[in-house]
Amino acid sequence: MNVILLGPPGAGKGTQSKLLVDERGMTQLSTGDMLREAKTSGTEMGHRVAEVMNRGELVTDEIVIGLIEEKMAAPHGAGFIFDGFPRTLAQADALGALLARHGETLDAVIEMRVDDAALVARITGRFTCGNCGAVYHDQTRPTAKPGVCDVCGSHHFTRRADDTADALRQRLMEYYKKTSPLIGYYYAKGALQSVDGLADIDHVAQAIRKVLDKH
Ligand code: AP5
Fold first, then answer.
1. Which atom of ligand 1 is closest in space to residue 201's alpha carbon?
2. Is it true that the peptide bond before 181 is cis, omega within 30 degrees of 0?
3. E strand intervals along the chain
4. Rounded to an integer, what distance in angstroms lies between the CA atom of residue 81 and that of residue 153?
5. What is the pTM of this model?
6. How far does residue 32's CA lie from ligand 1's centre (Å)?
7. What is the tens place of the pLDDT at every residue in 101-111?
8. pLDDT by residue (tens digit) across 103-141?
9. Dist. CA 212 → ligand 1 center (Å)
């Protein structure tokens, strides 16, 4: 089964992807995570990617499609969760072609509906385990023991360079201009399902399960 989680920054795509990986053994393909890895590579490409991401703009289609292509060709679990990809119509067309080349289908595109006011609070309160990547929030999803990751016990946490009010404004603008047209694109293909992304994490997970269990 292959599924796209579609939604603006902070909609909860990463949080729900990790739950699906644990529950269903699927493989999460997050272009944001891949690009953050590239940022730390010390290469000229990594440096250019860092500048674009820190401004809250989109990295070129060519780079992200190349990253996805590489990961899809590697050994993987029981289907893909595309998290933060595709983000433009060109990326959506490229994904369709890649899935066809691998003899795979796209089973669902799940739009996570949220409003901008909630996103500011979500983004500014987010922190991530620097060791295993588990995602937390100061108010809505703190660690059980302060300063200790629930998943791996690490004491090392990070906050993202693009989780500032200015960069978020730009990220939202990019979403509405370049990514939101994908809602119509997938609706026209009969693949679009929507869930209420403003519900608490467990209820969003339940709604996503309900969609996936139909396939
Ligand atoms: P990326 O890393 O994909 O970031 P994003 O899309 O902006 O999404 P986020 O990771 O910020 O949010 P999320 O929806 O995953 O929310 P999360 O679960 O963490 O991309 C970063 C940058 O990389 C882009 O700006 C661009 O430059 C580049 N890029 C990436 N992909 C690209 C592409 N395809 N093409 C071009 N450029 C690309 O949740 C957020 C917080 O809220 C957490 O603290 C969480 O605990 C909390 N939370 C989650 N769900 C709930 C809930 N239901 N209730 C309360 N709190 C919740």
1. 53
2. no
3. 3-6, 27-30, 80-83, 108-113, 126-129, 135-137, 157-158, 192-196
4. 26
5. 0.95
6. 8
7. 999 999 999 99
8. 999 999 999 999 988 999 999 899 999 999 999 999 999
9. 21
